[in-house]
Amino acid sequence: MAPTPPFAAGRNWRKRASKASPQVNRRVWYDPDNDREYEPDPNPAKGTWHEIDYGRRRYREIDAGTGEPVDGGTGEGAWRDLR
């Protein structure tokens, strides 16, 4: 199991099946405080996490240390549709 998101230690994390299925068909970390799901980026070299807004079927990349959207000039921190 992936560790809890490092940017928000102390939150009431819950591990659950994603409500964004069928696009996200795996277990993710859920934060009931903001009603969002989180998972590590599949590419560990990036060192980012995905913040998933399952109600709108969108996600964005966030910094693992701060939890802020990534701004690499490539739009990685912008909300994108789930595929």
Helix and strand layout, with pairings?
Elements: E1 14-17, E2 27-31, E3 36-40, E4 48-53, E5 58-63, E6 80-81
Antiparallel strand pairs: 1-2, 2-3, 3-4, 4-5, 5-6
Approximate shape? globular
Figure out the total of helices: 0
Instruction: Report helical residue fraction.
Output: under 10%
Mean pLDDT: 89
**Computed structural class:** mainly beta
- What fraction strand? 25-35%
Give the SSE order as H and E letters: EEEEEE
Strand elements, count: 6
Order of strands, widest sheet: 1-2-3-4-5-6
Main β sheet profile: 6 strands, antiparallel
Roughly how many Å is the radius of gyration?
12 Å
The end-to-end distance, rounded to whole angstroms, is 23 Å
Q: Uncertain regions: pLDDT < 50 for 5+ in a row?
A: none
What would you say this structure looks like, in words?
The protein is mainly β and 83 residues long. Helices cover 0% and strands 34% of the residues. It contains no helices and 6 strands. It has a 6-stranded antiparallel β-sheet with strand order 1-2-3-4-5-6, with no helix packed on it. The protein is globular. The protein starts with 13 loop residues before the first strand and ends with a strand.
Provide a compact summary of the structure:
The protein has strands at 14-17, 27-31, 36-40, 48-53, 58-63, 80-81.
Features:
single chain; 6 strands; about 80 residues; mainly beta; 6-stranded antiparallel sheet
